[in-house]
Amino acid sequence: MRVLFAALSLALFPLSTVAETIEINYTYNDEVSVDFSDLPRGPLRVAEFSDARRGVEPTEITADNLGNSEISGGYQADRPLADIIRDALVQGLAKGGASLVDADENLRLEGGLSDSNVQLVERDGQQSIQLTLRASVSLQGGGRTLWETVLFGRGTALVSEGIEPALNEALDRMVRGLIRDDYFLIEVL
Predict the structure, then answer these.
(1) Residue 131 and residue 116 in contact, taking contact as beta carbons nearer than 8 Å
(2) d(C-alpha 42, C-alpha 79), whole Å
(3) Contact at 8 Å (CB) between 80 and 57?
(4) What is the full DSSP assignment across 33-79?
(5) Phi and psi torsions of 54, nearest 5°
(6) Is residue 164 a contact partner of residue 22, using CB atoms and an 8 Å limit?
(7) Fewest C-beta in 10 Å: which of 50, 67, 80, 178?
(8) Cα–Cα distance, 180 to 154 (Å, whole number)
């Protein structure tokens, strides 16, 4: 009877998996070919980013069930993922010489994390983590929207390396997507 109860309990209430919490130490290291040091349309502020994902903790990188893999519990960042994306974009702008302000701006970059997804993929016979991030961003100025887009970033790393290299690659792509966007550049330069 006890064996039947234990089996039934496991079927109805499976063992919970715990997400691995990781400390994010992202730094944007790519060269920036655009000079943001003189923004003729006025000072720029990067507003706090929101998290539009539903049913997900702000620090959760993935809510996917990754089966019986080593990473079945998923990953949790040490701070909200939307803040990590915002900070990455700030680093990219600053690396191009932008002097960002906290108030009295003429231009304001707003945004929000809309999706994060982690999948296990097979690459060259090895199991890898593929992380995809999407964030909606808009440039506000003069009481109207001047520009908007969805920034997309994808990164891949071997499972043995953990999620951090995949996250760094995804963030790099998002930053490049912003600072190389011709329409964004037209509005700020």
Answers:
(1) yes
(2) 31
(3) no
(4) -S--S--TT--EEEPPPEE--SS--TTBS-----TTSTTTT-EEESS
(5) -100, 140
(6) yes
(7) 67
(8) 17
Query: What is the C-alpha radius of gyration for the chain, rounded to an integer number of angstroms?
Result: 20
The distance of Cα 182 from the centroid of its chain, to the nearest Å, equals 22
Q: To which residue do tokens 């929000």 refer?
A: 112
What is the rounded end-to-end Cα distance, in angstroms, of the chain? 74
Per-residue pLDDT tens listing for the chain (189 residues):
444 444 443 344 344 456 778 899 999 999 999 999 999 998 999 999 999 999 889 999 874 555 545 555 688 999 999 999 999 999 999 999 999 999 999 999 999 999 999 999 988 889 999 999 999 999 999 999 999 999 999 999 999 998 999 999 999 999 999 999 999 999 999
Q: Residue 102 corresponds to which tokens in the numbers above?
A: 């906290």
Token pair in block for residue 17? 């998996």
Residue with tokens 């520009």: 147
The CA distance from 132 to 130, in Å, is 7
Which residue matches tokens 């929207």? 145
For residue 152, give the nearest of 177, 125, 117, 126 by alpha carbon: 177
How far apart are the C-alpha atoms of 65 and 96, rounded to whole Å? Answer: 39
Beta bridge partners of 123: 126
